[in-house]
Amino acid sequence: MKRIISTENAPGAIGPYSQAVEIKGVLYISGQVPLNPSTGKIVNGGIKEQTEQVMKNIEGILEKAGYTFQDVVKSTCLLSDMSNFKAMNEVYGRYYAENPPARAAFAVKELPLNVLVEIETIAVK
């Protein structure tokens, strides 16, 4: 049976989806954008600040579901511009210093709310 995960430590869904869904020991976290859950606004700054907020949002969902970054097995990073890849990677890498998950990174034409980065995550217990 699937379990819907919802926390105030990450932004609420801006469409017809859940923050995360867990089924059979696998947690699927919807793409997180750099919205501060306290203010509902995009964080100030550039790609580093936006990536940091995205990772904090992912962390809030992982914690609510009883997972950690060590349980993450796959991430998909969407960037508005590949020129931001290196800076995004610097922040992202701090959260996965050892045994990082599999990952894909793509530049896309546009992201919701015109943000610079969106990251979706899969974790397994």
Radius of gyration equals: 13 Å
Give the integer mean of the pLDDT values: 97
Specify the number of helices: 2
Distance between the termini: 16 Å
* CATH T-level fold name: 60s Ribosomal Protein L30, Chain: A
Domains (count): 1
Overall geometry comes to: globular
Query: How much helix, percentage-wise, in residues?
Result: 10-25%
Q: Tally of extended strands?
A: 6
Order of strands, main sheet, comes to 1-2-3-6-4-5
Strand portion? 25-35%
Low-pLDDT regions: none
Major sheet summary line? 6 strands, mixed
Account of the 3D structure:
With 125 residues, the protein is an alpha+beta fold. The chain has one domain (3-124): RutC-like (60s Ribosomal Protein L30, Chain: A). Helices cover 24% and strands 29% of the residues. It has helices at residues 47-65, 85-95; strands at residues 3-5, 20-23, 26-32, 72-79, 102-107, 117-124. It has a 6-stranded mixed β-sheet with strand order 1-2-3-6-4-5, covered by helices on one side. α2 (85-95) links the parallel β4 and β5. It is globular.
Comma- or semicolon-separated keywords:
24% helix; alpha+beta; 60s Ribosomal Protein L30, Chain: A; 6-stranded mixed β-sheet
